[in-house]
Automatic annotation (TrEMBL):
Origin: domain of life: Bacteria
Name of this chain's protein: 2-oxoglutarate oxidoreductase
Domain Thiamine pyrophosphate enzyme TPP-binding: 67-218
UniProt cross-references to SUPFAM superfamilies, sorted A to Z: Thiamin diphosphate-binding fold (THDP-binding) (SSF52518)
Signal peptide start and end residues: none
Species this protein is from: Maribellus comscasis
Gene3D superfamilies on file: 3.40.50.970
Example GO biological process: cellular respiration
Organism taxonomic ancestry: Bacteria, Pseudomonadati, Bacteroidota, Bacteroidia, Marinilabiliales
Oxidoreductase recorded as keyword: yes
Key words of the record: Oxidoreductase
Pfam families from the UniProt entry: TPP_enzyme_C
C-alpha cells in the first residue's frame, strides 16, 4: 500500500514537497531526523536545485536518507562523509553538495575529516544532528554526551575524569577560517523549525555562491535511546541540552575570517 492510499491529499494542511518521496519514514516517533529531512526536501524544491544536488550520508540513523529525499546520494564509510563530499564537490563544481551526519559519526570517528574539510573551506553544506548519543547502535556514549548523562556505556552517568568532557564541536568549527556560516538550531517546535529552515536555506545559498563551508548543527532528541517519551525528551533537551549547546549563530561572515562572530 502506498502513502497516497493512506493519507488523502484533501486532508493535508500543507503540500508535500515533490523532493520528499512517498516512502513512510522508519524513524522512531518523536525523532528529529524526519523533520530535518522534510525541511531539506522543501528547500531543495523551493530553490529549484533538485537536479544539481548530491547528498552524502554515512553510517548512522540517517543512512537511509536516500529513501526519503529524491536527489542523487553517495554513501560514505563511518565519519568519512566530508572526505567524500570534498571529492564530489571538487569534481562537480556546478553541484550543490551536502553531508548529513550524526554526532557519533561526525564528532567521533569523523572528527579529523570534518575539521580538515572545514579548515580547507570546501564548498559544501554540513548538517550535523546532535542528540548526544549513538542512536542506531544501542545508545552508547558519544563525544557530545553531557556530563552525568546516562547511556548504555555510562550507566552511572558520564564522568569527565574517566570519559573526558562533552565536545562542543560546533564552537571548534566556528574558529576555522574555511567556514563562512556556523550555527546551532533545533526542530522541537514550530518556531524552531522555521528558524532552522532559514538557517539551512542560508547555508545552501552560501554553497551556491561559493562561500566555503557552511555548518549547521541541529540539537535533537533520541527519545528511544534516552528511554523517554517524545514529550519528555523534548523537555529534557530544553532543560539540559540547550544550556550546554545554546542555539543561535556562532559565525556569519565570509571564508577566510579566522574567528567566530561571538
Amino acid at each position: 500500500m502506498e502513502l497516497k492510499d493512506i493519507i488523502k491529499p484533501e486532508n493535508l494542511v500543507y503540500d508535500k514537497s515533490q523532493v520528499q518521496t512517498d516512502t513512510i519514514m522508519h524513524y522512531c516517533p518523536g525523532c528529529s531526523h524526519g523533520v530535518v529531512h522534510k525541511v531539506i526536501a522543501e528547500l531543495i524544491g523551493e530553490l529549484g536545485i533538485q537536479e544539481r544536488t548530491v547528498g552524502i550520508a554515512p553510517v548512522g540513523c540517517a543512512v537511509f536518507a536516500y529513501n526519503y529525499i529524491d536527489v542523487d546520494w553517495q554513501e560514505a564509510a563511518h565519519g568519512r562523509a566530508p572526505a567524500v563530499a570534498t571529492g564530489v564537490a571538487r569534481l562537480n563544481p556546478d553541484k550543490f553538495v551536502f553531508t548529513y551526519q550524526g554526532d557519533g559519526d561526525l564528532a567521533s570517528i569523523g572528527s579529523g575529516e570534518i575539521m580538515h574539510a572545514c579548515n580547507r573551506g570546501e564548498n559544501i553544506l554540513v548538517v550535523f544532528i546532535n542528540n548526544g548519543i549513538y542512536g542506531m547502535t544501542g545508545g552508547q556514549m558519544a563525544p557530545t554526551t553531557l556530563d552525568g548523562m546516562v547511556t548504555s556505556t555510562t550507566p552511572f552517568g558520564r564522568n569527565a575524569d574517566l570519559n573526558g568532557y562533552p565536545m562542543k564541536i560546533t564552537e571548534l568549527i566556528a574558529q576555522l577560517p574555511g567556514t563562512s556560516y556556523v550555527t546551532r538550531q533545533a526542530v522541537h517546535n514550530a518556531a524552531s523549525v522555521r528558524k532552522c529552515k532559514r538557517a539551512i536555506k542560508k547555508g545552501i545559498q552560501n554553497v551556491l555562491a561559493k562561500k566555503g563551508t557552511s555548518f549547521i548543527e541541529v540539537v535533537s532528541t533520541c527519545n528511544s535511546g534516552w528511554k523517554m517519551t517524545p514529550v519528555a525528551a523534548n523537555k529534557w533537551m530544553e532543560d539540559n541540552m540547550f544550556p550546554f549547546y545554546p542555539l543561535g549563530d556562532l559565525k556569519d561572515g565570509v571564508k577566510g575570517e579566522p574567528v567566530s562572530k561571538n
